[in-house]
Amino acid sequence: MLDILLVLLAYLLGSIPSAVWVSKRFYGMDIREHGSGNAGATNTFRVLGKNAGIIVMIFDILKGFLAVKLSIFSYYTWTSEPFVNLQVILGIAAVLGHIFPIWAGFRGGKGIATLFGMILGIQPLVAVSLIGVFMIMLFVTRYVSLSSISASIAFPLLILFIFREPELSYKIFAIGTAALVVLTHHKNIGRLLTGSESKVPLFRKKDKRNRNTN
Q1: Distance (Å, rounded) from C-alpha 39 to C-alpha 117?
Q2: What's the rounded Cα separation, in Å, for the pair 76 and 103?
Q3: Position 134 in a domain
Q4: Residue 196 neighbours by CB under 8 Å, 6+ apart
Q5: How far, rounded to the nearest angstrom, does the alpha carbon of residue 175 sit from its chain's CA centroid?
């Protein structure tokens, strides 16, 4: 019974629609009606800018992280297989809450930031490694979507071959996560193949200076 209650709390925590609330409260609009239509950090960055995007991203990461930490209220021994299994289930519940938020008509985002928060809560070293993959890809390509896809594919590879996670449930979750992220980014993949995907202007100021000197 306690486990079911914790899973429900994790879902409700993940359902907090930070992007929707920030866009409505401070910008007088619904983020889901603009840009890609997703209520997530990436679309918030694109539509509302850096400040709003950072706030939403941090909040969405915290949702996944805190959902996993609800496991401390269980009766399982820390690091035991049931404990890790519960952490995975709690994290998944939070991600599903973000994608299908009860507080926002079940129209949420893709859950990437919340998923990262979940991984951070379970295995911080893996999370840091994924940040490295994401940032390298973003620096090289300037595509947020491609960076997210690359990090998601790196997730099971790290779990299986680098960190050699012993828990079967976590291995299955890592593989499933990579498949899910690729599936939910199928439109982005199509735009990447046609060259129409939007880039993050990391070097905007530098590019302007270069144009002015040419």
Answers
A1: 17
A2: 31
A3: yes
A4: none
A5: 16
The single-letter DSSP state of residue 163 is: S
Domain that holds residue 9: 1-108
pTM: 0.85
Q: How many domains does the chain have?
A: 2
Beta carbons within 8 Å of 47's beta carbon, 6+ residues apart: 23, 31, 34, 35
End position of a domain, from candidates 76, 108, 140: 108
Answer whether residue 34 is part of any domain.
yes
Cα distance between residue 195 and residue 189, in whole Å: 10
What residue type is 132 in one-letter code? G
Question: Which residues, other chains included, contact 164 with Cβ-Cβ below 8 Å and sequence gap of 6+?
Answer: none
> Which pLDDT tens digit goes with each residue over 7-49?
999 999 999 999 999 999 999 999 999 988 989 988 898 899 8
Whether residues 76 and 7 fall in one domain: yes
